[in-house]
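Worked example (supplementary).
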Amino acid sequence: MSKGTQITTKNNYVKAVWTILIGIVLLLFAVALSISLGAANFDLATVWQAIFAPDMSLLPHQIIWELRLPRVLVAVIVGAALSVAGAIMQGVTRNPLADAGLLGLNAGSGFAIAICFAFFPAMSQLGLLAASFVGAGISLLLIYGISAAARGAFTPAKLVLVGASISMLMIAISQAIALYFNLTQGFAFWTAGGVAIVTWDQLAFVTPFIVIGLLLAVLLSRSITVLSLGEKMAIGLGQRVGLVKILSLLVVLILAGASVSLVGAVGFVGLLIPHIVRHFVGSDYRYIIPCSAVLGGLFLVLADFGARMINAPYETPLGAVVALIGVPFFLHVVRKDIKGI
Amino acid sequence: MTSRRKLLIIAALGLTIIILFMISMATGVSKLSPFEVIQTLLGMGSSKQHLILFEFRLPRMLLSICIGIGLAVSGCILQGVSRNDLADPGILGINAGAGLAIVLVLLFFGGLGSAPAWLMPIIAFGGAIAAMALVYGLSYKRGHVTSATRLVLTGVGVGSGLLAASTALSLRLSEEQYRLISIWLAGNVWNASWLSVAITVPVIVILFGFVFYKSRVLNAITLGDDMALGLGVNINRQRLLFLLIAALLAGVCVAAGGNIAFVGLIGPHVARSLVGSNHKYLLPTSALCGAILVLLADTLGRIILQPMEVPTGIIVAIIGAPYFLYLLMRAKN
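After joint prediction of all chains, the assembly is encoded as:
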């Protein structure tokens, strides 16, 4: 390794540390903002008291504990999970357009939810979460299966088109089920994407999965960097490529599946955040993954805050707010000259 | 392949439509045998048969055929103009644009029931043309569309943005309006009336006739800009004209039948494998393939979950998506 690269790597390490530190400070600020402002506004002292010395006889404390806090925590962990999942997919497939939403995971989850609403109307919230997880997984496995079976190179464009057609297929079947069983807006609200209705129970159920997924992602980050240099290079460096690919698929499944099951159709986060992070810290996944986690959490807290404030007192679906930022960004990425487009 | 053989293929597809028509009439909740159909058409059926044929089935089937023709021809034009086999009004976000326009009208004017029926195609066309302008504008780079793939990806991006906006807005509708819009967005032809037939059929026929008349120009554009210029075609003007027609066709079809995807992709694709890429044969063959697909989907949608009807767009997607995936898997690049 030349001296120049070493210096860049060291610089990137410093940049990564700064990105994480500043990111965490901004994240705390955003969390505080999101908890204190809304249909009812609370000053920061009340927020502080409610969190660290709760008195459930007080209405503000109840609102903060039952409504605001679970919501903001979900935004943090889901933002982190979706971004890290996107970063891993982009690294492993060497595809700059990989993202849970674009690959059809959201539609897969919606499909599973439609089946549950139709055939098991009495299913508990946790059961729905599990089903949605499985649905997202089915989409992911379909994508992987098709790209493994395909002839020739699987370009970014092809991957997006496969994702789009799997989405269309899943959405069509969900719509048929929804119409046949007369499922109305309840189903639509679930799939539109949002963190408004998340409870402590759901949070407690999903958080361990996401934490384990994030830790595994950090452990895998070095191997992902090697793999992102190209498969031949990775084999030459003595990496067990097959094993790394399977483990990363598993981590993506845990992170993206758990996130989609909590918030429904929120796309583009996994596309957006790793791209921005790469701009700051370069292409080493040991830096990209933790930075993506922090900035992804920050982004989704702000987006959810926006979703509440844009048209208060109505909620705008989180998925729509994220798409508002994500779509132009996607178009910007497509406009740049990407290899394979 | 001789031109006679191509004409024979076209005739066979036409015959398929007639057979499918008869099968469709003979199945479902209310059936008419082919003999009864002919009798009724000649004005000799019972009043009940007359009612079934003229009030329910005929407008719906005519509309299905028209939508199939319109979407397939729109896809055929888009594929020719962008020189990209993956172009389709659904994938390029044009349907989503028309859909958003309809949702907006429903939201701000409280309903389509009160609006005059001729307004729907105009609104949908407005949305379709706006979406297409957006997609083409965004994929222009250094003065020209550099990459056909970029065009398709831009379409996917714009389409998902417009869809997100439609979803967000549709949550604000009342329960009843929401049901209306979700059926409409799923793509259905079952509300077919003679009024919508009267609006849709002439537009499709005229546009198809015009495009067919100009099929040589489309051939020239498909050969490439240099070749087209050499043949004396004003490429930018002609391209713009064809794009406008493609959006108009898609907009009219979306207004009549809701969001039906994949027809514009599959119709031309099957047609190309049957008669090659000369638009003189490709356009009518695509049109017939599209018509067969939509008619088949409409018939299946009517009979598989009787007495409930599955919207045509859903059946088309369930047939179309796997076929498209198969094409993507086979394609080398």
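Two points are worth noting when inspecting this output. Residues 3-31+73-337 of chain A form a domain with the ABC transporter involved in vitamin B12 uptake, BtuC fold (CATH 1.10.3470.10). The mean pLDDT of chain A is 81.
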